[in-house]
Write a structure and sequence with these properties.
Elements (H helix, E strand, L loop, with lengths): L13 H17 L3 E8 L4 E6 L5 H23 L6 E5 L2 E7 L7 E8 L4 H16 L4
Antiparallel strand pairs: 1-2, 1-5, 3-4, 4-5
């Protein structure tokens, strides 16, 4: 029998996924300006999602992965540096994407907010959330 590929995602215990979803749900409940929180794998698969109806968890997980990859590539090529997070500012809000600092470094979280949420607070919430999630994913 062959061993798993080094690029294979570590399995996350279903109870941990429930804990993650509860944390994300609590975050959105506490902060009215937040519209979604998405934890996805770096290959674009959704692990946990909480957000407004009408949003596609799978599409947002894929975009989270792409956004993170773009931010990291841009920082590496243009600044010869490591990206700490990615930010998209739009007419009606913003999205911050952060790699979760877990052992595997194979997950990223995106938080999206409407224009009532300040960018600085959204960034702080994203960084704090990624640190908290690092304890729950491999």
């Amino acid at each position: 029998m062959s061993s798993p590929s080094p690029s294979a995602l570590p399995v996350v215990d279903p109870h941990r996924v429930q804990d993650i979803e509860a944390r994300l749900r609590g975050l959105l409940t506490q902060h009215d300006g937040l519209r979604f929180a998405c934890l996805g794998s770096v290959d674009g698969r959704v692990l946990a999602f909480v957000g407004d109806s009408g949003l596609s968890p799978q599409r947002l997980a894929a975009i989270t992965s792409s956004s993170l990859g773009l931010a990291e590539s841009f920082a590496r090529e243009a600044l010869r540096s490591r990206s700490l997070y990615g930010v998209v500012v739009a007419e009606h809000g913003a999205v911050v994407t952060v790699r979760v600092p877990s052992r595997s470094a194979r997950y990223a979280v995106s938080l999206g907010a409407d224009a009532s949420e300040t960018l600085a607070l959204l960034l702080r919430r994203a960084l704090d959330t990624s640190a908290a999630l690092a304890e729950l994913v491999p």
